[in-house]
Amino acid sequence: MILPIRLFGDPSLREPTHRVAHMNERLETLIADMIDTMHNANGIGLAAPQVGRSERVFVVDIRPLLESMPDREIAGVPHQPMVFINPAITVESEEEEEYEEGCLSIPDILEDVVRPSMVRIEYLDGSFTPRQLEVGDLLARVIQHEYDHLEGVLFLDRISAFRRQMLKRKLRDIARGETAAEYPTEVNIAA
Q: Could you tell me if 170 and 108 are in contact, meaning their C-beta atoms sit under 8 angstroms apart?
């Protein structure tokens, strides 16, 4: 089922997530719905808070990026889509890279963000099997972006105050539901 994606200004995007105790039918349905929602929106990652849920879960599928960049070699990409339950980033490289990011919860805004170029992440996969993954390049960036959502952090928090100020009007329009997206969206403003 396609779920509406919560937009900037929705309090669920800033709330901390909760660890998942066990796999059940409700969680399986959430994961399947998140993957469907991500694909419907032509996204490459989606975290539970983006669909108004507080579970510590995100999904990633970078195949669209790989297809759009045939000249870029990306080694060691695991089978896609990937499911991350109760993830913890345990290592971040000191080396950093700047790259343009966007977000399904913040449509039509792209900004350069500096992040570690490599991370190691421990998580449970969609079968609730413990996994550890060390990745770099684009997959590391997508994982960090989605992981931030679980911490209540948006990519806008990682850009300069000057750039945020420049985006103020666009962000206000998004928070008011005045920005169109090509996928179902929802914004719930706290009173």
A: yes
Per annotation, catalytic residue among 55, 101, 111, 146: 146
Any idea what DSSP says for residue 3?
P
CA–CA separation, 134 vs 188, rounded Å?
A: 36
- Give the pairing of strands 106-116 and 118-124: unpaired
Max Cα distance, the chain (Å): 49
Question: Do residues 49 and 149 lie in contact, with contact meaning Cβ atoms separated by under 8 Å?
Answer: yes
Strands (E), the chain: 5-6, 45-47, 57-60, 82-92, 96-103, 106-116, 118-124, 130-136, 185-186
- Mean pLDDT calculated for residue range 152-172: 95
Express the helix, strand and coil content of the chain in percent, nearest 5 each. 30, 30, 40
Tell me 16's DSSP state: P
Angle at 180 between CA 67 and CA 109, to 5 degrees: 60
Instruction: Report the number of secondary-structure helices (H) and strands (E) in the chain.
Output: 5, 9
pLDDT digits (tens, 9 = 90+) for 50-81: 999 999 999 999 987 766 655 555 555 677 89
Fill in the amino acid letter for 23: M
Please count the residues of the chain: 191
Predicted TM-score of the model (pTM): 0.92
Residue 106 tokens read as: 């913040």
67 is an active site residue? no
